[in-house]
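explain this chain.
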Amino acid sequence: MSLRTGIRPLVVCSVLLSVAPGAFAQTKVAVVNLQEAVFGTAEIKQANVAMTAKYKARDDALEALKAQGVAAQKKLDNGQDTLSDEQQAALEAQVAKLQRDVQREGEDLQADVQKDRDDILLGASEKMKTVVQKIAEERGFDIVAEATVLIYFKPATDITKDATVAYDVAYPAKPAAK
């Protein structure tokens, strides 16, 4: 390789390096915590209240079932000496059934709540991404980064609160049904 062909790549690299800082200096970056922005919206707060009301009866029934199990277990523990073998066996079966029922009902309730929660959050997250993109376009941001994965950012670059406000304007919470 001649000296001339070896120098050419070095010259190209040095030119690129001298231009690169200017290109990066013009990039406008914003930061958003999408989870915080979504959970701060009126729509999600209202959905949380609605879900609590929707599942209250099932949650209360589950708590009552748990209380029955505790009472049956106490009766079993306290009657060790006074219960016949037949009574003790029946009480043990009742305690086991109540424990299974509590577990099944709890798992079913948790699965239903999780499904509703996921559906609501998925829809809200997609809408929030649209809102953030609109803010970025309006304010001339080239990049919007997720705050939770960054090591450091200046608070002035954070548009999380702006995104929540813009979301509430674009997607106002509907009045609760009575």
Summary: The longest strand covers residues 29-32. The first helix runs from residue 3 to 25. Strands lie at 29-32, 143-146.
